[in-house]
Specification:
It contains 9 helices and 8 strands. By secondary structure, it is α/β, with parallel strands linked by helices. The protein has 2 domains: about 70 residues, no CATH class; about 240 residues, Rossmann fold.
Length: about 325
């Protein structure tokens, strides 16, 4: 039987459906006997503007490797993750600060019901931190034990008289409302901010990243810091690395769990060793990478065969 172009395209299109029946293992390391989830509240992760929950995948694996059960973690996929240009005016496929706050609140309640916990920890990157702060400020502090804000523009991406209704304008009503008072955090919740030392493009004095090069934004690298919070500078990391890098994970875990992560302890042992520990760790790391690549290659080949086999069988029945 001649295989037509239509058959080939149908076979390729069937692969995602076939792949849905095969689970991809997380490859998370098993926690050591000294690690446990005791004292660690359920954790909800909130992505940033225009982003998605999958960005937290590695963080979830790291948490699980340090004894936090996967059923006590959740990364929300916000329905319309892009912010409006004007928070007061509806835009297709974009959300207001109130939309984000409401959807986050529903996710928090769902996580509480699932785990039976009375309080949860929230971790947000970029815009995700805005909704976290808004939820806590609007009466949610009693149900939130920790709030970790990673690269969040807490004082805006810019501070201008124009565009006051933009969510990221530090002079606008949204951020002014969150930052009013001597303390910029809500009592009852422990706050941690993580920021870059000058490499976050949304914490720059020059407006080139918002379309106005040479114009001062009124914001500096210290913009993400909050009065009343624990404020840490992670070094020369970019906007996303303040949330998703290994260094960020160590600080997130330590703040919520109240202890060092196992990975940090292993790093220290490696650095202190005199028998080539760093090189050994590099080889093991590459071995695991190669194992994963080999697994995915074999898996892809199997799925391809199954997909085309299913389509060819369908073609034969039709003919």
């Amino acid at each position: 039987m001649k295989i037509s172009r239509r058959t080939i395209l149908k076979g390729a299109g069937a692969l995602p459906l076939v792949a849905a029946d095969f689970g991809l293992p997380a490859f998370a390391q098993s926690p050591s006997a000294s690690q446990s989830a005791v004292g660690v509240p359920p954790i909800l992760f909130v992505h940033g503007n225009g982003d998605h929950a999958a960005l937290w995948m590695t963080t979830l694996w790291r948490m699980e490797s340090n004894g936090v059960p996967r059923e006590r973690m959740f990364a929300i996929n916000l329905t319309d993750p892009l912010a409006r240009a004007d928070d007061t005016k509806p835009e297709p496929n974009k959300s207001s600060t109130e939309d984000q706050r409401r959807e986050l609140g529903e996710a928090i309640q769902q996580l509480k019901r699932r785990t039976g916990a009375s309080r949860v920890a929230l971790v947000g990157n970029s815009r995700g931190g805005n909704s976290i702060r808004s939820y806590i400020k609007s009466g949610g502090a009693a149900g939130v034990s920790h709030a970790v804000l990673c690269g969040v523009p807490n004082h805006g991406v810019y501070n201008w008289e124009s565009g006051l209704n933009n969510e990221f304008n530090g002079r606008g009503p949204f951020l002014r409302g969150l930052n009013e008072g001597e303390s910029e955090v809500t009592p009852g919740t422990a706050f941690l901010t993580l920021r870059s030392d000058g490499m976050d493009k949304y914490a720059q004095d020059d407006g080139r990243f918002v379309g106005k090069p040479g114009t001062s934004t009124g914001i500096t690298a210290e913009g993400p810091a909050l009065k009343g919070a624990t404020n840490l500078v992670l070094g020369a990391l970019d906007h996303r690395e303040t949330a998703f890098s290994p260094r960020a994970f160590r600080e997130i875990y330590r703040f919520i769990a109240g202890r060092e992560s196992g990975k940090r302890e292993n790093d220290r042992k490696t650095q202190d060793s005199r028998n080539g520990g760093r090189f050994i760790r590099f080889r093991v790391s590459n071995f695991h990478r190669l194992s994963v690549v080999a697994f995915l290659a074999v898996r892809s080949r199997i799925l391809t065969i199954i997909g085309f086999g299913a389509v060819l069988a369908e073609e034969m029945l039709v003919e």
